[in-house]
From TrEMBL:
Family: Belongs to the bacterial ribosomal protein bL25 family. CTC subfamily.
Assembly information from the UniProt record: Part of the 50S ribosomal subunit; part of the 5S rRNA/L5/L18/L25 subcomplex. Contacts the 5S rRNA. Binds to the 5S rRNA independently of L5 and L18.
UniProt GO MF annotations: 5S rRNA binding; structural constituent of ribosome
Function: This is one of the proteins that binds to the 5S RNA in the ribosome where it forms part of the central protuberance.
Keyword RNA-binding applies: yes
Protein's recorded name: Large ribosomal subunit protein bL25
HAMAP family per UniProt: Ribosomal_bL25, Ribosomal_bL25_CTC
Species this protein is from: Acidithiobacillus ferrooxidans
Any GO BP annotation: translation
Keywords: Ribonucleoprotein, Ribosomal protein, RNA-binding, rRNA-binding
PANTHER family (UniProt xref): RIBOSOMAL PROTEIN L25/GLN-TRNA SYNTHETASE, ANTI-CODON-BINDING DOMAIN-CONTAINING PROTEIN, RIBOSOMAL PROTEIN L25_GLN-TRNA SYNTHETASE, ANTI-CODON-BINDING DOMAIN-CONTAINING PROTEIN
């Protein structure tokens, strides 16, 4: 179930001042919660997060938090970034166990853009969704939803109900009858003509 592991330390001091002190020592404050257990304050070396977080898979895979004398399996639930620096200020981790049903946002990857019929004909690709919330057992969470657009022509679109997903995976918006558009191919002249159209008198 686990593909990633990172060392973590428990922390007892909480609050903004304590968090600032931790960050000055190169540590990032975090909290671990869920699975019917008490929330636990932890901290992780910033240098380790700089190696982990650029990997897109880290956001949809179970991570083993290696604590002194114990281990916890968790998903990244939230990351607070500095407003203008590439610096993590705080993280939330959700405890999980094998087989548990969880909901998570996963990215949408579009396949075969270079061979898409509509793009080759001069159409413009519109990515309506870049991620979507899914529900699945924690060990079946997809890294991303793969959407093949090779057969789309100008004027065509795909909605969530038309997307194939792995066994055991449910698209959460469809549970609420929200069949969102995922991608479409537009005629490039439509936008230009709309901009050039004369305004009508009020």
């Amino acid at each position: 179930m686990t593909d990633f592991a990172i060392a973590a330390q428990p922390r007892e001091d909480i609050g903004r001042r304590a968090s600032r002190r931790l960050r000055r020592t190169g540590m990032v404050p975090a909290v671990l919660y869920g699975d019917g257990k008490a929330a636990m304050g932890i901290c992780i070396e910033a240098r380790l997060l700089r190696k982990l977080l650029p990997d897109e898979r880290a956001y949809t895979h179970v991570i083993t938090l290696q604590l002194p004398g114990s281990k916890e399996t968790a998903l990244i639930r939230d990351i607070q970034m500095h407003p203008y620096k590439e610096e993590v200020l705080h993280m939330d981790f959700l405890r999980v166990h094998a087989g548990e049903q969880v909901r998570l946002h996963v990215p949408v990857h579009f396949l075969n853009e270079s061979t898409c019929a509509g793009i080759k004909a001069g159409g413009v690709l519109h990515r309506a969704l870049v991620e979507v919330e899914v529900e699945a057992p924690v060990d079946r969470l997809p890294e991303a939803l793969q959407v093949d657009i090779a057969g789309l022509h100008i004027g065509d679109s795909l909605h969530l109900s038309q997307i194939s997903v792995p066994a055991g995976v449910t698209l959460v918006p469809l549970l609420h009858e929200d069949d969102k558009e995922v991608v479409s191919i537009h005629n490039p002249r439509t936008g230009a003509e709309a901009e050039e159209a004369p305004e009508t008198a009020a």
